[in-house]
Amino acid sequence: MRITDLLKPESIRIGGAPASKDEAIDELVDLMAKGGNVADKAGYAAAVREREAQFSTGLGDGIAIPHAKTAAVSAPGLAAMTVPAGVDYQSLDGEPATLLFLIAAPEGEANTHLEVLSRLSTLLLDADFCAALRAAKTPAEFRALVDAEEDRHRAEEEAKAAGAAARDAAGYDVLAITACPTGIAHTYMAAEALEKKAAEMGVRIKVETQGQGGAKNVITAQDVAGARGVIIAADKNVDLARFDGKPLYSCSVTRGINEPGELINIVMEGRAPICHAQGGAASPAAAEGEGVGRQVYKHLMNGVSHMLPFVVGGGILMALSFLLDQPGLGTSAYGHSTPVAAFFNVAGNQAFNFMLPILAGYIAMSIADRPGLAAGFVGGWIAKQGYTLGYLSSAMDAEAQAALVSGGFLGALLAGFVAGYLVLGLERALEKLPSSLEGIKPILLYPVLGVFLTSLVMMGVNPVMGAINSALSGFLNGLSGTSIVLLGIIVAGMQATDMGGPINKAAYVFGTAALAEQTVTGNMIMAAVMAGGMVPPLAIALSTTLFKNRWTEADRKAGLVNYVMGLSFITEGAIPFAAADPLRVLPACIAGSATAGGLSMLLGCASPAPHGGAWVIAVITNPVQYLIALAAGAAVGCLVLSLLKKPLPPEQSGLDK
């Protein structure tokens, strides 16, 4: 379906002059009704206003695209209006809207308005096209411009697809895999940087992204056969078995973002070492110059990234159980006094029960590949339960069970590394067995010996891990007043230090470890960590909106995206700005994040969810205070950044147009 199939001439007004946003909506609804798309004009107008109450559809740069999906619409349609004098549409950049489109979709129509909204938004990124629409003299000319731009855009897309098909047929010079622990931002930013640089260098590249939604653009055996070499830009372990015998260079995902040209040259110039994948495992030798610390970090992040969905799902479901259980408020049954609350509580608790075994299992798998998984799971469960060798002699009576002390997050962490390296040792120790026994190693020898040895070690060390865990819990729960505010300042400030790098991840792991204790203090720490991660993109977005003369036009457009990224707790949205001007951006973001974290602690905010940002505000304790802490942190970061940056000349900022 073309855009102009929905945009009738009678639904276009050239030279409108609404005095307000409400008046603009009324005029657009009238235009939509003239096109015969609305069965209930008042109902449709109400639906459009209800959508606007959630978030303004004024996109900035003079464009607004209000829309609604409702039973008041009889057929999908578009209306458009140019407003030469502009109208205050409460746009994100504060500028008046001069080009307005209204989208109508019937309730039963599957995503029509979203498809049109997506296509329109893409076309409207072209400033020249928007200028041409604003200058149109008649509805017919307006529609013709839309048609021509859509044709041009489709031709470009077809050319890109044809080029991709041609590259697939011709093969690739370089293959790459990008992956970060959370699989949200760094993964795709590194992929984009590598693709752009390869295009500049005339190098054919294919990048597989291993994100939170699974692997995309997957590298095939045919791709591997024809390529010169492989780049692995990842902060978690990647299975290298398919690249055995191929030149391969492994590095952090951050280098993929910051040094794409250097990485491509390493492969193209033959400087990458040969990958040796043993038994399907990722060979550490493939990562040239990779130190012990980085290997440990990658193993840890592999566990954390797999654990995260259990923490998020379990934490939010348990929080909902308390949110829904008003009858049990103030009683010992709070959270499960009603069937509905009990359902959410049980489901959330079960997810949490898997959290530590998952962490240990995937750390072990990162070290020893699949043979390490079973031993890691069992070791993590033993650490969680606190089983000891002394417990075995007590006939497992109730008193002995009550005396067990969980090794907690640290115990599971240890179990993962113990299991991984024990199984890795077993693999090497059993290498010289007759080849006729090769088939029983993964199904008999590794699981039996791995689980046995890991269980033995963990039961031996659990008393120590339990004592450490108890001491740490006692320390955290004993924090109050100035000390807990200081802790909030530190962990939140760490989130802004390297925007998704090791320091940021260390603070996040500390937050999830505290959250695993299921205490109020642990939840407060998690809230401070999350606030610290949300502030940098928000501070930058505010600065690009309020202090326009400090930024180029491209920066201001990119800044708008950071509102969404900040609210979604995706700190990485600030990376391009920090990379371009670290001496000003980083101190400002750290100051803002530290402010938000300290205030979050001071105001008693607590989050049972380790992710989600503003979208999980309903389950955060003291939600209004939390929003105040976020707003204060973003404001501090914005002001510091805007004071540190000098105003640009009008020709650089683009404000002289």
Indicate the topology:
Layout: H1 3-6, E1 7-13, H2 21-34, H3 41-54, E2 58-60, E3 63-64, E4 67-70, E5 77-87, E6 97-106, H4 112-123, H5 127-135, H6 139-170, E7 174-179, H7 186-201, E8 205-211, E9 214-216, H8 221-226, E10 229-234, E11 248-251, H9 253-258, H10 260-268, H11 292-324, H12 339-368, H13 371-385, H14 389-392, H15 398-403, H16 408-429, H17 441-478, H18 481-495, H19 502-516, H20 520-546, H21 553-567, H22 575-580, H23 582-602, H24 623-644, H25 650-653
Parallel strand pairs: 1-5, 3-6, 4-6, 7-8, 7-10, 10-11
Antiparallel strand pairs: 2-3, 5-6, 8-9
Describe it.
The protein has 657 residues and is an alpha/beta fold. It has four domains: 3-156, 3-Layer(aba) Sandwich (Mannitol-specific EII, Chain A); 171-290, 3-Layer(aba) Sandwich (Rossmann fold); 293-442, no CATH class; 481-653, no CATH class. The chain contains 25 helices and eleven strands. Strands 1, 2, 3, 4, 5 and 6 form a six-stranded mixed sheet that branches. Strand 2 (58-60) and strand 3 (63-64) form a beta hairpin. Helix 13 runs antiparallel to helix 16, helix 18 (481-495) runs antiparallel to helix 23 (582-602) and helix 20 packs across helix 24. The protein is globular, with a radius of gyration of 28 Å. The model is unreliable at 279-289 (pLDDT under 50).
